[in-house]
Amino acid sequence: MDKNPFVSQAVESVGGLAKTADVLGLRGYQTVQQWIATGRVPAKYCAALEAASGVSRFKLRPDDAALIWPELAKESANV
């Protein structure tokens, strides 16, 4: 699986690993570091990361975002 560059972009937009972890209420930056390494953000953090960074959850989880948030997928299709 290719890494998702939007995960790194979101983390940088928030202010780095530690700041992202703090904003999302995580215990440490290592969790965020793992997301960057795998290119995958758990669904339960995507909305908060989207709000903090401005990077769409559809970019954070391109493979399954429409399945997780079908109501948003319909809205984005109408734009």
Automatic annotation (TrEMBL):
The record's Pfam families line, in alphabetical order, gives: YdaS_toxin
The source's superkingdom equals Bacteria
Q: Where is the secretion signal located?
A: none
Question: Which residues, by range, are in coiled-coil regions?
Answer: none
One GO MF term:
DNA binding
Query: What InterPro entries does its record include?
Result: Lambda_DNA-bd_dom_sf, YdaS_toxin-like
Q: What name appears for this protein in its UniProt entry?
A: YdaS family helix-turn-helix protein
